[in-house]
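chain below, 139 aa
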Amino acid sequence: MENTTILPILKKIPLFAELTEEDHAEIIKNITLNYFPVDYTLFEEGAPGDKLYIIKTGMVKIFHPSNPDEAVAMLSPNEFFGEMALFEDTPRTASAMTTEESEVFLLEKSDFYKLVLKNKSIAGKLSEEFLNRIQSNKE
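prediction:
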């Protein structure tokens, strides 16, 4: 994994901002880089949230299907979205689609849960409520 590319972005994500270099390294081990062609739907509004997205290259449009021509947000390299999905079991509130060829880092919710449950350093820095959610999701 390209630590120099993704580490500065991880530090900007509120959920990960207070973690140590070692914690960040553990998270980075669980992140995968994926290529998506232009006009690829990453997820649709109402779908379960199951991963965090971090853009390496390309552009992603966040929009509501009821008004697809109007973007809620246009996200570019080094921006992230979907982080709430790591600890909330709520459906996606908008859709996301690439507007050009894109490389996107993905952190799966299941990998994040395993990481938190086995790494006391990371777990200790996350809120008690967050850990309670993870535990209840495992049962």
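DSSP finds five helices and eight strands in the chain. The CA atoms of residues 49 and 85 lie 5 Å apart.
thats it, cya
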